[in-house]
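Chapter review. Work through the record for YhcH/YjgK/YiaL family protein before attempting the end-of-chapter questions.
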Amino acid sequence: MIIDKLENLKMYAALNPRIALVCKYIATHSLTDLPVGRHFIDGEGVYVNIDLVQGKHREEAVLEYHHRMMDIAIPLTAEEEYGYAPVAELPDAEFDTQRDFAKVEEGVCQTYLTCKLGNMVICLPQDGHAPGICKSPELKKAIFKVAMY
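Structure tokens for YhcH/YjgK/YiaL family protein:
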């Protein structure tokens, strides 16, 4: 899991060349003005979900992970905290291959990281992450989904 300033996202294109498409999209679109929903950038290989979520307390957050996609999440209206635990150390969970998603109900976060406004978090397939922890009752965020292969 990587947390950094959004302006530094281009430096991470070495992780995945599709990150350059995300950078271009961010430069040409106002994320805060996009309506809630999925917006395709490069078909199923790169898209952004604009979500409006209810802020959670740490004890309400559930770890999740993906195999095929990395997440690049950007809080748009309030800072967001993420729980973290390595997937290799989590208990087994049912993986939905169609949705590229597993929810680890019994997982325990090892640490918590705060993503402030103007920052972004990159969650790779090995990163169990518990998003949505927020003091604000509502959070608008952009989650770019980027295919790993």
